[in-house]
């Protein structure tokens, strides 16, 4: 995980809209991304259950046969769940020749351990919460786990953006990392070994997900503080044209096209590995931010359409005169269009400078005051 890139991205999160606010627009992970990256089911019943923790130790013993011991001091408040170390100690290896009920118990604990560490991880990273084991009471039930994973990630992003809780971030960071690498060019690692896409026609369940493309990437070994500043500046200056151009370049390379055959714009810059970024100065980043700021297209008004009448009337400014406007404004417009002035407009134009000069003279006269005394 690239902690600096994830932190810079989380700072762009909007809890009200549940989207990342970027200069090029708004983006957010969707259910399609969850299905392609994690291959979790997005169809089925929503995972709605009672999250009350009353008597959770007794219910855990009924499901898996044991529960963590209570604290020595009854006043100590322990979270409702089991530490990962306790789960590995008691359910690390399934015994050989176990019965069907024992296999179901170990399967339930294994699923609980897996989803608690990957999909529904909390900011602490040391505990498997009881609510996820409760959802695995009936293994054959078809829950919409993909929808639950996306909603849980949204909630963790809200808490991390508002700096609530323990100050960290939870949720499926694998989903967030692969989504950002595929959608954004900021913090994208370099793929070390590109392997062909495997196919298992006899067993479709073994088909890889979209995360297979990012299975072997380079690690970020630079200073996280400096990289965080660099990633923040890149997000501030990222445009839709640059992001699309880099994505099309990468797609063309996957298809076997050479770099010389790809049409690139002058504003596009090559991707820089994390190890060589430190050798560049901060002033270059600021110049890059200033230069790319002028590449944005203005929003709000639509661009003016060119028509054949514009070519005929080039160099001439056509003005429609309205009756409600004062005569001075209409006379100025006539002068711009090289139209002759009427006699009344010429007299009024000659009188206006004289009246203005007279007013200025009156304003500059000092105020006379009488002397007191004899």
TrEMBL record:
Region feature Disordered, mapped onto this chain: 291-374
UniProt superkingdom: Eukaryota
Ranges of Basic residues composition bias in the record: 356-374
InterPro entries xref list: AminoTfrase-like_pln_mobile (IPR019557), MAIN-like (IPR044824)
Biological process (GO), any one: meristem maintenance
Domain Aminotransferase-like plant mobile: 2-244
Stated name of the protein: Aminotransferase-like plant mobile domain-containing protein
Source organism: Lolium multiflorum
């Amino acid at each position: 995980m690239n902690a600096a890139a994830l932190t810079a991205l989380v700072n762009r999160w909007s809890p009200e809209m549940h989207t990342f606010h970027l200069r090029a627009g708004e983006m957010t992970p969707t259910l399609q991304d969850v299905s392609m990256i994690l291959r979790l089911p997005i169809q089925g019943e929503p995972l709605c259950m009672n999250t009350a923790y009353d008597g959770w130790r007794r219910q855990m013993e009924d499901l898996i046969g044991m529960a963590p011991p209570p604290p020595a001091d009854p006043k100590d408040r322990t979270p409702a769940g089991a530490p990962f170390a306790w789960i590995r100690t008691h359910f690390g290896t399934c015994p050989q020749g176990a019965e069907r009920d024992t296999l179901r118990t170990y399967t339930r604990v294994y699923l609980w351990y897996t989803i608690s560490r990957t999909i529904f991880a909390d900011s602490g990273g040391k505990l498997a919460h009881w609510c996820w084991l409760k959802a695995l009471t009936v293994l054959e039930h078809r829950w919409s786990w993909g929808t639950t994973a996306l909603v849980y990630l949204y909630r963790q992003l809200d808490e991390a953006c508002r700096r609530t809780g323990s100050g960290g971030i939870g949720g499926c960071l694998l989903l967030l990392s692969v989504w950002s690498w595929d959608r954004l060019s900021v913090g994208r690692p370099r793929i070390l070994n590109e392997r062909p896409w495997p196919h298992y026609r006899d067993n479709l369940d073994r088909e890889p997900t979209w995360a297979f493309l990012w299975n072997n990437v380079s690690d970020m070994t630079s200073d996280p503080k400096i990289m965080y500043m660099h990633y923040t500046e890149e997000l501030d200056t990222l445009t839709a044209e640059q992001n699309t151009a880099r994505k099309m370049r990468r797609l063309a390379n996957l298809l076997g096209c050479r770099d010389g055959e790809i049409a690139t714009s002058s504003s596009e810059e090559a991707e820089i590995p994390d190890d060589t970024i430190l050798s560049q100065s901060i002033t270059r980043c600021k110049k890059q931010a200033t230069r790319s700021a002028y590449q944005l297209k203005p929003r709000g008004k639509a661009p003016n359409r060119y028509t054949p009448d514009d070519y005929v009337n080039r160099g001439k400014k056509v003005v429609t005169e309205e009756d409600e406007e004062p005569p001075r404004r209409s006379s100025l417009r006539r002068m711009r269009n090289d139209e002759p002035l009427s006699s009344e407009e010429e007299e009024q134009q000659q009188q206006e400078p004289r009246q203005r000069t007279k007013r200025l003279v009156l304003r500059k006269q000092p105020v006379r005051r009488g002397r007191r005394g004899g």
